[in-house]
Amino acid sequence: MSAVKDAAIDGEALLKALLEGKLPDDRGRYGEFGGRYVPETLIPALQRLDQGVSEILSTEAFERAYRHELHTWVGRPTAMTHAPHLSEAWGADVWLKREDLAHTGAHKINNAIGQALLAKQLGAKRIVAETGAGQHGVATAAACARIGMPCRVYMGAVDTERQAPNVRRMHLLGAEVFPVGSGDATLRSAIDEALRDWVSDPEGTYYMLGSAVGPHPYPLLVRRLHAVIGRESREQLLAQAGGLPDAVFACVGGGSNAIGLFHGFLGDREVAIYGVEAGGRGLSLGDHSATLARGKPGVLHGSYSMLLFDRHGQIQETHSVSAGLDYPGVGPEHALLQQIGRVRYEAASDEESLEALAECCRTEGILPAIETAHAFAGARRWAKVNPGKRLLIGCSGRGDKDVDTLAKVMPSLAAAPTGGAGV
After folding, report:
1. How many other CB atoms are found less than 10 A from the CB of residue 247?
2. Considering Cα of 407, then 411, then 415, then 416, what sign does the dihedral take?
3. Cβ atoms 146, 116 nearer than 8 A
């Protein structure tokens, strides 16, 4: 039997195990990916969290409290919007899952309020978090205010400048924002600093990780809290469009919104699934953040997954016009889904993504986040060669936070007329 056929059989077995809830395994592994690579001082805290995920998340009391917050505070279910003008332009039937309409403006709030409720039940006294584009930071600040717990948010100094509106929102919501100037001063450095804070007080501090990355059980926890996106999408499309999509698209940095959306369709083999990473300004190492499309396996931030590193094994600085995708790693479950061929991961460049963002603004009256625009760019390419098909895009967040960045990188926007005398 050929090695290729062996790999295919293993892939089917792994997908079956994943769909049956048998992955991650008891070591926190998704096949060869995942695990727990952390300092010894964090092991007891991770074990307590693992026990909490196992024993608390499935209880009726937690489910009731979580659903109540989702329905009455977050604003779920979020809308499923048909996009008639993009459909006409692309020659496809385009639908948008509107996480941009969730409280605080992105999918991140599903995870933040869920982890905040869990932290309270675990007896935490304070919360620390990291953020890149600021959406997880805002969601964390809002969730902590909601449950009455102090929080500190670490954010790369570069990101505090390009996402200044979100920094101001975090302050208004009562969070302490700590700019990180070390390393690349982006999301990677923010995670490093948040982990250092957690190590100094693992008993009283809860680390609210914002993406489907990190040591076990975080990738599982974040996916479970975001799986509502996929469940709602599946139900809404069946009700509104009369069937499942032919293809599903989501942007992928760490991969939190994507893993939540994808889980609603992994078992539907007729549905093609695509993750779209940041292709940045080119294919050279350091010019993009396309971890799955261009990376190799390695360990970062407590997990074995796909990474971007140089020939000396050093983690490489990345680039993306999107602060939220500017990260050299990705969640281990995405690495598995790529390995077994269930999800295809591609990259969209800065330029393609900004063009797609502008098109969505002009034709549908929706300003997506720059992160989200990468999914639009990937979907547009696919639609051009698959005319007449139905596709779903995970609209993970709104682009209000990106207006200052857009004014700098889109000359047409910066040069736009400011109007005449007005009326």
Report:
1. 21
2. negative
3. yes
Residue 248's identity, in one-letter code, is: V
Q: Which residue has the tokens 């964090």?
A: 42
Q: Which two tokens stand for residue 347?
A: 């990259």
User: Among 311, 320, 342, 141, which residue's Cα sits nearest to residue 248?
Assistant: 342
User: CB 240: neighbour CB atoms within 10 A?
Assistant: 12
Q: Which of 69, 99, 108, 305 is catalytic?
A: 108
* CA–CA separation, 237 and 262 (whole Å): 14
pTM: 0.94
Looking up tokens 């109007």, which residue turns up? 419
Do 139 and 104 form a contact (C-beta atoms < 8 A)?
A: yes
Q: Are 212 and 254 in contact (CB under 8 A)?
A: yes
pLDDT in tens, 58-87: 999 999 999 999 999 999 999 999 999 999
Q: Which of 130, 346, 364, 371 is catalytic?
A: 130
- Strand-strand pairing, 151-156 and 126-131: parallel
Phi-psi region of 403 (alpha: psi -120 to 50; beta: other; left: phi over 0): alpha
Q: Which residues in the chain land under pLDDT 70?
A: 1-9, 412-423
Beta-carbon contacts of 293 under 8 Å, excluding residues fewer than 6 positions away, are 277, 279, 345, 346, 347
CA distance 18 to 8: 15
Residue 315, beta-bridge partner list: 309
Cα distance between residue 214 and residue 301, in whole Å: 5
130 noted as active-site residue: yes
297 beta partners: 306
Report the candidate in 289, 335, 70 with the shortest Cα–Cα distance to residue 188.
289
Q: Which helix (H) or strand (E) segment is 88 a member of?
A: helix 84-90
Chain segment 302-315, per-residue pLDDT in tens: 999 999 999 888 88
DSSP secondary structure of 326-369: --S---HHHHHHHHTTSSEEEEEEHHHHHHHHHHHHHHHS--B-
The catalytic residue among 211, 346, 396, 401 is 396
Tokens 């570069």 sit on residue: 158
User: What dihedral angle (degrees, nearest 10) is formed by the CA atoms of 307, 208, 14, 47?
Assistant: 110
396 tagged catalytic: yes
Cis, bond preceding 24 (omega within 30 deg of 0): yes
